[in-house]
Amino acid sequence: MTKVIATLAVILALVPSVSAHRYFFGLTEISTNPNTHAVEIVHQYTLHDVQQALKKRLGKAFRLEQSDAEQQIRDWVNEKFELTDSAGEAVVPSWVGFEADYQKIWIYQEIPERDNLCRWELSNTLLMNSFSAQINTINVVDDYGNRSLTLTIENTSGTIKCQKDIKG
Fold this sequence. Notes:
Layout lengths: L1 H13 L10 E8 L6 E8 H12 L10 H12 E4 L5 E2 L2 E7 L3 E8 L9 E4 L10 E8 L2 E7 L5 E3 L3 H5 L1
Parallel strand pairs: 1-8
Antiparallel strand pairs: 1-2, 2-6, 3-4, 3-7, 5-6, 7-10, 8-9
């Protein structure tokens, strides 16, 4: 009996917790729609982390089913994700919506037709106030190439460079 209990204790110690994880990673893709020339922005995060961040922000439990959930997510994203074009003008993306499954949430934004994203500044502090190890990767896909920015709590902003900027 002692061997069975000891074996179960070892097995349970090796099984990872389903309620917690060790990594905090978000992905944002910014791409130009070839048909409309609009800039489409898709943020993908772990649903539980977003719920925790909004709980902290609101001071009460946050659930997607609550009547003001979409507005709360929208306000939070607009505060934590900022863009400035190459002329130094703030650009506020239009809200498209969000969807979620039991693990992930996808948040959609859009900017009307733009020539390019070259030398735009962006800041993305989504989840960084809640999780100091949060890493937000931004992938940019347009006619000027594919590139990425990796943002952390120590480096929350960056410049979107174009291939011609990188080579020159």
